Structures are given as structure tokens and as C-alpha cells.
Amino acid sequence: MGKITGGATRIEDVARVAGVSMKTVSRVFNHEPNVRADTRAKVEAAAKALHYRPNPSARSLAGHRSYLIALVYDNPSASYVMEVISGVLDACEPARYSMMVRPVKLDDRDHVELVAETVAQYAPDGLILTPPLTDDAALLRRLDAQGVRYASISPKTANARLGAHLDERSAVREMMAHIVSLGHRRIAHVKGHRDHGATDWRLAGYRDGLRAAGIAYDRALVVAGEFSFESGAAAAERLLALDAPPTAIFAANDDTAAGIMRVASGQGLRIPRDVSVFGFDDLPMARQLWPALTTVRQPSRAMGRIAAEQLLRAIRGEAAGMVEVPYELRLRDSTGPVPTHPRRR
């Protein structure tokens, strides 16, 4: 390859070394379709050899894009949000896109305006929405009216166009079958946030599991939660005070499970000898808890990456859609056989 002397490397230098036009180099950097694989490889090799990095401002002007996508979230689980952020970055970096993060409170009456202001101020090429914002009708209507592209993670609506989702109902039903196989019949459930689609799916899977085992649904064993440690702790205080406490508790997510385990241990209960606890998500904390938490693996980082990839494909005018990702059961030490002598208050 030729040697470049003096000053910063320019796109013209990359084009000359690769033996292609500047327009072709631009198309490669913008990930446009219909570029031959060998041509793309030559341009990327030339850019790497010359230590060339596209100028974001010039790139935006030339492509009429901001090369920015925004992740909009309202979720009490910091661990979940960080996993999604990492996944979105995994997709943005090779595409030479930047990412901004915009926290929004669904309970705020002006949350739709806050998102609209973000779009107007920063002009992102698209948004990634996490639940429960994925199902906020007012927000979706506003984005559609403004022609804003967006991808959804775990949307409740079946007609969502872009993003990533997981069959959460089937996952919980399968986990319930495992818990029942251990002999448990009094299985409680701490639900998630009322506006979150996952709350409905996970409750439905719980009820499916009971029905399949011939166990009657007991309202006293189902407690509202918020997908948070604090709500898990509060729910555990209530459930463990029942005259006939549950022998197993299904938490709607791992943060909630951690709160349950904290209270149970504080009451002198041994997990899983006295009570089994299982969750959903398989966040890093699930392996750090003691005992390690039995849970459903929802690949949150992969879902963030896939949602971003689908959004970027749509931005480039390529075919994109909603991708279903697989789940896995993580059977660890927080669940075990039903106690031979269930506790009574």
C-alpha cells in the first residue's frame, strides 16, 4: 500500500490506496447495500492501514443522517438496563454509530413530550424502546405521527414491527413444570410492574404451570411487585406470614428474587431447604447471590444488540423485523425438593 505523508488521513487517501472511488469508500463506511464483498474488504483494509476514522460531522452532512440512535428506558432494574445498553453498543460500534441514553418515567404526564424534545434536539436516526415504554400507546402514536423509526424490546403488542422478543410465557410454564417435579404444590408468585407486558406473560406462564399440574390458582399466593428488590422484600414479608406459607416463590425478575431471599434468610429460613426461590432474566447477580439463583435466562444483552441491528437495517433501507430469541432454564441452588414438613405459622 502507498505511504501517506503529512497531515491527517483523508477519505481521498483511502480511496487511492484501495483503488476505488471516494463514493465507494463512503458507501462502505455508511454500510450501504450492493457493495461487493471484495471491494468492502479492500476499503476496510486500507482504512485500517492508514488509521483512518470517518469524520462524524462530514458523514452526517453527506448521508443526511445523524449516525446516532437513542435508547429510551423506564425500568427499575439497573442491571437489566446496563445489559441492554451493552448490547446496543455491540451493534453500534461496528456500524460506526453513536448511542445516547434517555431515561423517561412513564408515570410522568409529560413523558411523551420529553421523548419528542429529545428527537427534535438530537435528531437521532431512530429509537430503541425498552418495556414498559414499548407498549405506551400515546408514545407510539406520537412517534408514528412524526415518522420516527423505532425498535422495541419485548413489546406486548403482536404487531410490533422491529426489535427482539422472547416467549416468556412458555419459559415460565417450563420452569413451573420443573418446580412441580420437585414436589411443590404451594407455589407463590410476585408479579412485576402493572404496565409491563412481561408481567402479564409471566403471570400467564405461572397459571399455565399450575393448570398443567392440576393445582388450583390461589389469589393469596399472588402478590403485586415492581420488578425491584424492595418490592420483592415487601412481598416476602407478606407471603411468609401466611398461615400456610408457600414452599416455593416465583419472582417476576431476579431483582425481586434477591429481595425475597434477603427477607427469607433474615427470618432464619434456609434456601432451598425451607423455601425455594426462582426468578427470571439471569442477570449477573443471579450467579452472585448465595445460594445461586435458579432463573430463566433472558439474553438481555443479545436482545439489545438484535434490536439495534434491526433498527440499523431499517435505517439503511434493508429488510428488518421482529426477532424471537431463545430462552434457557438455569437450574441452580436456590431451588430444591419440597420440605418434608412444610412450615405453619
Topology, please?
Blueprint: H1 11-18, H2 22-29, H3 37-49, H4 56-63, E1 68-73, H5 78-92, E2 98-103, H6 111-122, E3 126-129, H7 137-146, E4 150-153, E5 163-165, H8 168-181, E6 187-190, H9 197-212, E7 222-223, H10 229-239, E8 248-251, H11 254-266, E9 276-281, H12 284-288, E10 294-297, H13 300-315, E11 322-324, E12 328-330
Helix pairs in contact: 1-2, 1-3, 5-13, 6-7, 8-9, 10-11
Structural write-up:
The protein contains 13 helices and twelve strands. With 345 residues, it is α/β, with parallel strands linked by helices. It has a six-stranded parallel beta sheet, with helices on both faces. The model is unreliable at 1-7 (pLDDT under 50).
Can you describe this structure in just a few lines?
This protein is of the alpha/beta class.
Features:
single chain; 345 residues; alpha/beta; 434 Repressor (Amino-terminal Domain); Rossmann fold; 3 domains; 6-stranded parallel beta sheet; 6-stranded mixed beta sheet; 13 helices; disordered N terminus
Largest sheet, described in full?
6 strands, parallel
CATH topology-level fold name of the largest domain: Rossmann fold
User: What is the ordering of alpha helices and beta strands?
Assistant: HHHHEHEHEHEEHEHEHEHEHEHEE
Record field, number of beta strands: 12
Q: Radius of gyration, Cα only, in angstroms?
A: 25 Å
Strand content: 5-15%
CATH architecture designation of the largest domain: 3-Layer(aba) Sandwich
Catalogue the unreliable spans: 1-7
Full CATH superfamily name of the largest domain: Response regulator
Oligomer: single chain
Question: How far apart lie the N and C ends?
Answer: 80 Å
| Count of helix runs | 13
